[in-house]
Design brief:
The chain has 366 residues and is an all-alpha fold. The protein has a single domain, classed as Methane Monooxygenase Hydroxylase, Chain G, domain 1 (Up-down Bundle). The chain has 17 helices and two strands. The protein has a two-stranded antiparallel sheet. Strand 1 and strand 2 form a beta hairpin. Helix 4 runs antiparallel to helix 5, helix 4 packs parallel to helix 7 and helix 5 runs parallel beside helix 14. The termini are far apart. Pathway: Amino-acid degradation; L-tryptophan degradation via kynurenine pathway; L-kynurenine from L-tryptophan: step 1/2. InterPro entries: Trp/Indoleamine_2_3_dOase-like, Trp_2_3_dOase. Homotetramer.
Length: 366
């Protein structure tokens, strides 16, 4: 019989004997069985299984983008797999509701048996962070040692290699930098966009000055704020200032990649830009959900432990809350929204460029 057609039992295929025999309660070993330790173990084992699937899907997307030119059909595949990751992340957030059915006193029944085990020792989660683009120099440290010091030599080597290679962030940046429509014959996107921004801001200033429902003092305050907005837009289109902000660490995404992401967001309704826009949105979704999970995790720790030190030696809640704020990878893509202008102010694309961004195969070219 062909091996591919041979039968296999459900239990054997899923390796259930290994999985279901993998919950060993330390409290039982100390003859002080704590009922909720079973829940604690299973929830964290499930986390690790989901991390494995996320790494599997993310790795496949990174491979699609690592070969230079990205085949158009691969964008759809990437969108689908990132969407799956986001749905898994929502489950990871929801699992915290389950673990919170365990009260703080329930946890204290077995917490001392965990020392010094900690979620900080999750190798797969560190792989995920590095694969996305969280580099060593941008990490908030919870000890004076490297984050990778809790792992074996083999695992540290894997993390080091990941750090040296292109992350998802790096691959996306390079892909954006290859966007071909920033300069199209006589159409210069940046210059045309600058003009549109100027028109929009001038119109908003005129609307403030002519408003009869606010005081003179309030008008002046709003006009001053408009001045700050103008300064922000002007600096965005000065590549030297952008590069300086990158050196300072306030921006990560290169100037050209940022402008490309802006173009894709502004002209998202053009058929050939629709999928690139959806792809960028999925990256933002994934980054946002990871931040949501970090925040939710921090709140769970505060509820369960208060201000106690974590089992891994961190400051507990304070450390986790800080990472939620600082460990965002695709922040620059979130910030594109600051630069968006109403469709009514968008520079009109040349006919030839619109045709290149459209599906013209069904039109009569004769």
């Amino acid at each position: 019989m062909d091996k591919e057609l041979s039968s296999i039992h459900y239990d054997e295929y899923l390796q259930l004997k290994k999985i279901l025999d993998a919950q060993h309660l330390r409290s039982v070993g100390f003859n002080k069985p704590a009922h909720d330790e079973m829940l604690f173990i299973i929830v964290h084992q499930v986390y690790e299984l989901w991390f494995k699937e996320i790494l599997h899907d993310l790795g496949s997307v990174m491979e699609l983008f690592s070969e230079g030119t990205v085949i158009e059909s691969h964008i759809g595949v990437a969108i689908s797999r990132l969407d799956r990751i986001s749905k898994i992340q929502k489950i990871l957030v929801d699992q915290i509701d389950i673990i919170e059915t365990m009260t703080p006193l329930d946890f204290l029944d077995f917490r001392n048996y965990l020392l010094p085990a900690s979620g900080f020792q999750s190798f797969q989660f560190r792989q995920l962070e590095v694969s996305l683009g969280l580099k060593r120099e941008r990490r908030i440290s919870y000890t004076q040692c490297s984050y990778s010091g809790v792992f074996s030599d083999k695992e540290q080597k894997i993390l080091d290699e990941l750090e040296k290679g292109d992350s998802m962030f790096d691959l996306v940046e390079k892909w954006l930098e290859r966007t071909p429509f920033l300069q199209f014959e006589a159409f210069d996107f940046v210059e045309e966009y600058k003009k549109s921004v100027g028109l929009m801001l001038n119109r908003e200033e005129q609307a403030i000055e002519s408003a009869d429902y606010i005081s003179t003092q309030e008008k002046q305050l709003r006009i001053n704020m408009m001045g700050e907005t103008k300064t922000y837009f002007n600096s965005i289109f000065d590549e030297a200032i952008h590069d300086q902000k990158m050196k300072e660490g306030t921006l990560k995404l290169s100037y050209k990649a940022t402008i490309s992401a802006l173009l894709i967001n502004l002209y998202r309704d053009e058929p050939l830009l629709r999928q690139p826009f959806m792809f960028l949105q999925k990256l933002v979704d994934m980054d946002e959900l990871l931040t949501t999970w970090r925040n939710r995790h921090a709140q769970m720790v505060l509820r369960t432990l208060g201000q106690k030190i974590g089992t891994g030696g961190s400051s507990g809640y304070d450390y986790l809350k800080t990472t939620a704020d600082k460990h965002r990878v695709f922040y620059d893509l979130h910030n594109i929204s600051t630069l968006l202008i109403p469709r009514s102010f968008l520079p009109e694309l040349p006919k030839e460029l619109k045709e290149k961004l459209d599906f013209n195969f069904s039109k009569d070219k004769s």
